[in-house]
Amino acid sequence: MTRSIDDMLADARARIRRLDPAQTRAAMSGGALLVDIRPVWQRAEYGAFPGALVIERNHLEWRLDPASSAHISAATDHEVEVVVACQEGYSSSLAAAALVELGLHRSADLAGGFRAWQEAGLPTEPAPPSITAATTSPTRDDQRCHDHGIRGFSSPKP
Question: Has this prediction a pTM greater than 0.85?
Fold first, then answer.
């Protein structure tokens, strides 16, 4: 059976909690980790979440699985509450579902991502100078998308 990314996204979202920006901020006040999985170029271009832990998507499971030899110190056990954020709330849904599969059952995602956070008027920060200085030129695919005016997904809002 062939599945589409829309099928995968729907399945992932059925298994996770989706928090709006205000709920995410409240969860952070209660001790939840806000984990920004966006690549460096997105953080450089759009800004950063104050207080977020940055773990790019390709390292997420290894850094947050308490059983992994590569876990971060905040990944103390499977009871840690994690809210995963990306730019628009698509990748974070898939990532949060992967964390739930690892046993991090308190994982959620920020519905609408960084864009929704900004639109809600919540505080943001510019990317640190070290990030903007380290940002290399975009890949050919990134440049092609930029040249054609493609910025994010054209799908309906999550």
Answer: no
